[in-house]
Amino acid sequence: MEITPELVKNLGRLSRLALTPEEETRLEGELRSIVGFFEKLSELDTQGLPEMARPVEITNRLRADQVGPSLSQQEALSVAIEQLEGQFKVPRVIE
Questions:
Q1: Of 1, 2, 7, 79, which one has the greatest count of Cβ atoms within 10 A?
Q2: Considering only CA atoms, which of 90, 94, 66, 91 is closest in space to residue 77?
């Protein structure tokens, strides 16, 4: 992909950024560098490699649930502006 000054100006317009000429020049160089990295990646032979979502396998470390002290229903509802049948009543947000 060719990075041109016109492309940088168009990207700035689409992003609603007011770029100075110096910023446009710097951004043009940075975009060329980024595209260059992707071009190098496309040269790699990936035949036979398994697909993966991330380079390192991650597993969640979850702690065991523990029951602890909490508010009673009456205590929780004591700060409610409105309540209805033992529940918080809030304004409708979906039509």
A1: 7
A2: 90
